[in-house]
Amino acid sequence: MAITGKERAELRAEAHHLDPLVHIGAQGVTPTLVGALDDALRTRELVKVQLGRPIEERPRAVAERLAEETGAVVVQVIGRTATLYRENPELERKHGAPPPWRR
Questions:
Q1: What is the pTM for the complete model shown?
Q2: From 3.20.20.70, 3.30.110.60, 3.40.1000.70, 2.30.29.150, which CATH number describes the 5-86 domain?
Q3: Distance CA 96, CA 48 (A)
């Protein structure tokens, strides 16, 4: 899945107001964490992930790994916060309704 530069810019603007839904702690990236992120992406599509201090890997590397494991794309990485996006074609969309991450 790839997104254009324009789509990436729009998603970055949307993500600015979001709070992190997934937090990576001392355990690092575990199957449980990947499952929680997968659930969040399925229901919200656009998700912020907060990396805790104990993580030794570079935040960009962790974000790329999470994106690969969940089929998402990395929208941006700022400091220790990554934003991932994965469209869910099964989500109900009503004309004029806000996107799922704003609900």
A1: 0.92
A2: 3.30.110.60
A3: 24
